[in-house]
Amino acid sequence: MKLKLPDWKDPKIRLKLIFYGGAAVVFLLLSSTIMLATTSSNSFCNLFCHSMDNDVNAFHRSAHANVTCMSCHGPGELPELLLEKAMAGKEMLAEFITGYEKPINGESHLAKEFPSEHCERCHAIDIRDVTPSSGLMINHKKHEEKGVNCTYCHNRVAHPKLAGYENYLTMEGCYRGGGPEGEGEGEAEAQTESEAEARGCHSLAAGAKAPGKCEACHTKEFTLKPKNHLAADFLPPKHAKMAKGDREYCNMCHISNFCQNCHGPGVEMPHPAKFIKKDHGTVGNQNPAICQRCHLQQQFCTACHHKGFDETKGPFGRPEPGRPAQHPLLVKAKGAEACFKCHGPTYCAHCHVTGQKSASIKGP
Fold first, then answer.
1. Which of 146, 177, 264, 277 has its Cα between 20 and 30 A from that of 333?
2. C-alpha span between 349 and 340 (Å, rounded)
3. Sequential DSSP letters for 21-43
4. Per mean pLDDT, which of 18-27, 123-132, 175-184, 231-240 is the most reliable?
5. Is 214 exposed, middle or buried (0-12, 13-18, 19+ CB in 10 A)?
6. DSSP string computed for 106-160
7. Are 327 and 304 in contact (CB under 8 A)?
């Protein structure tokens, strides 16, 4: 049976076809516009895709709270936007059903790939006055020439102060392991390109992507020493705790042999297990002044080597007015066998007979 097509020459039929065809086009355009606007809204991104309440709440507290998600995350041209939605829809639906990995983009790897053109839709860097914090010099042009995109540094600008994310717009973020690790300038260890990428930018180490010298980013009047270094108890003991907890924080300003320049040769910092268990006695005997730079109190050694000593009852060695020496009481209670693990047989006699302490723990 042959299909009979409408007679286009008939004015009545032609009018109906134009009317219904036009209505269909208008409906498609209107529904597409509504669908595009809906799927590009912040509410849709949060409720139907990412379900990331913490990130959205942080966004509402940011300087970008009055723009939509797609203003930054979406491509600028309509054809590209439609194509991206078609390509990403399937993947997002699968992740929505199976669950997104949290925190989303925790390593900020997407920040390294985020095109600067998206930011420059609003922030035209060529005509915009850049006002860094007091004491800082930020050369955006130099970063741009080196291929550093905006969000490589401004990674938390739209979703600030969230647990689980590092903020790279800090000095720690600029360095963040920023170069090959070495014993000093010119002594960098070999590393692959991917390892170099992961390490970051600024560093004092040789082979770093960007300089680590203070004057590269700070003005002359800027106070270089951090506030925590000015505390009365920073040297010691706070700096030691800081160094043990976060060596990369120290390495922003100090190359790795900086500690040895102060603590002396043979004293690796922080102390490795071998030094604590075996070598510290030898170093302390040969040059006790090195140990005393940090361990100023005699009780530091005594607390470990003279078990049972209670400093509240008096000094361990020589008596003080109203405070008797404690070592005779310990020897009387436990015997002298433990003493001779460190001291020679004439050590006690040298002190008790001559009245002068031996120059060596082994005795004269």
1. 277
2. 13
3. HHHHHHHHHHHHHHHHHHHTSHH
4. 18-27
5. middle
6. TT-HHHHHS-HHHHTTT--TTTSPP-PPTTB---HHHHHHTT--HHHH-TTSSS-
7. no
> For the whole model, what pTM was predicted?
0.62
Q: Contact 199/179 with Cβ under 8 angstroms?
A: yes
Contact 362, 350 (CB under 8 A): no
Cα–Cα distance measured from residue 361 to residue 282, given in angstroms and rounded to the nearest whole number: 11
Distances, alpha carbon 53 to alpha carbons 41, 42, 48, 60, 74, in Å = 15, 11, 12, 11, 20
Pick from 176, 204, 206: nearest CA to 191: 206
Cα 72 to Cα 117: distance, rounded to the nearest angstrom? 9
Which two tokens mark 243?
A: 């160094």
**Percent helix, strand and coil across the chain, each to the nearest 5:** 50, 5, 50
Distance CA 215, CA 137 (A): 9
β-strand pairing of 210-211 with 202-203 = parallel
